[in-house]
Design the sequence.
């Protein structure tokens, strides 16, 4: 069984808690794209954890975790993340964590370039997390990247790094007029933070192919959501990698394998970090109330998330792009304070009503068409089966299921690992 768990919307849907929950039934969990520009928050009996780079399966002692070739890894950040988890009592060894030798390293000059470009753009900025993600992916495709496997040959690494830093300084110093980077400093940084990782770096494709042969259950964990995908998202306000399920085997290290199942994650309302069109966005007190009720602040950055009603237009598109076989609806409990629950049912694009997700300038000018559903106005956090739900909450779930065209299997009603229920088909 090869299963992908992916975001249906803009990210922040609650994928980490679902991966953590479902990892109990899997042997391997793989991160297949992205870097430390987003976070997965998991709350379990050991505490609250925010994971930026490590797969969420790392919190399960009997699960093997893979950081795939599609990732970009800031090894200083990874060092801190590993240290934090170990202090909390999480055991991490080369037996339960494997890092692809083909994954690209995000260096300090990538972070600096990201910051310089956002500052240059000023009011036209993309809302980058300033973690170096776009520059490092750019360097990957320019064939100017340093891969994890390059760390094993220090002499060749040093020579290659000198050429790359010389090239990078043409932009950093020559273009942005900032301070040049010293190749020796970058080499020292790589050696310092890679020392503890050498036993974890391997050809993960060999491991994963063998796991498939042994009929192991493998889960692929995505970062962000369909609307942040570099090809199919709200370009250019996207991430710099492929966030869709179809990329999972490629970004993990087994491009010849096919997925058996895709579980899409979506919230019972909408949230978004960063710039770009967000048609369903609420403002003022209405937005503040929802943001506070849902604790909507970025796991990686702490930035307040933009919030709005559930967006059927965007979600139906996300379900299609991800090829979702089933869905998990998260944070339904957050909506319990509402008398009436707003839902975006269509977009008004220059006077034309559409239920198809637009792109480009049409998306930029789209306005939401909103309808209201009955609220349930009671605590649902103790519901553990379908029959426990108040009628209005049940009706809301089934309404969303019908509109997005995909079975909602799981519904989370709280932040703890066991705060969920399974819906009948």
Sequence:
């Amino acid at each position: 069984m090869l299963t992908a768990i992916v975001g249906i919307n803009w990210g922040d849907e609650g994928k980490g808690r679902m991966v953590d929950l479902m990892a109990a039934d899997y042997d391997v969990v793989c991160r297949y794209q992205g870097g430390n520009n987003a976070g997965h928050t998991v709350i379990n009996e050991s505490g609250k954890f925010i994971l930026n780079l490590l797969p969420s399966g790392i919190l399960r002692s009997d699960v093997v975790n893979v950081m795939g070739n599609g990732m970009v890894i800031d090894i200083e950040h990874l060092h801190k993340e590993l240290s934090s988890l170990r202090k909390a009592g999480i055991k991490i060894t080369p037996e339960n964590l494997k890092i692809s030798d083909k994954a690209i390293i995000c260096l300090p000059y990538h972070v600096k370039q990201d910051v310089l470009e956002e500052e240059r753009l000023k009011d036209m900025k993309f809302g980058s997390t300033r973690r170096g993600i776009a520059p490092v992916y750019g360097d990957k495709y320019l064939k100017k990247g340093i891969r994890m496997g390059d760390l094993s040959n220090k002499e060749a690494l040093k020579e290659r790094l000198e050429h790359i830093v010389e090239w990078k300084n043409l932009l950093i110093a020559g273009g942005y007029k900032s301070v040049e980077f010293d190749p020796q400093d970058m080499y020292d940084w790589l050696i310092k933070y890679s020392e503890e990782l050498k036993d974890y770096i391997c050809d993960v494709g060999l491991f994963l192919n063998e796991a498939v042969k042994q009929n192991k259950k493998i889960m692929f964990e995505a970062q962000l959501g369909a609307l942040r995908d570099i090809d199919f998202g709200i370009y250019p306000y996207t991430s710099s990698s492929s966030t869709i399920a179809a990329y999972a085997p490629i970004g993990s290290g087994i491009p010849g394998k096919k997925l058996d199942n895709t579980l899409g994650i979506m919230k019972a309302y909408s949230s978004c970090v960063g710039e770009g069109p967000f048609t369903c966005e609420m403002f003022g007190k209405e937005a503040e109330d929802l943001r506070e009720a849902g604790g909507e602040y970025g796991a990686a950055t702490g930035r307040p998330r933009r919030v709005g009603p559930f967006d059927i237009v965007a979600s139906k598109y996300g379900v299609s792009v991800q090829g979702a076989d089933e869905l998990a609806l998260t944070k339904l409990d957050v909506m319990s304070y509402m008398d009436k629950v707003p839902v975006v049912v269509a977009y008004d694009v220059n006077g034309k009503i559409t239920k198809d997700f637009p792109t480009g300038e049409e998306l930029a000018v789209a306005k939401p068409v909103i309808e209201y559903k009955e609220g349930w106005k009671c605590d649902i956090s103790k519901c553990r089966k379908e029959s426990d739900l108040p009628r209005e909450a049940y009706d809301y779930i089934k309404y969303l299921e019908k509109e997005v065209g995909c079975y909602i299997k799981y519904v989370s009603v709280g932040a703890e690992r066991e705060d969920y229920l399974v819906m009948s088909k």
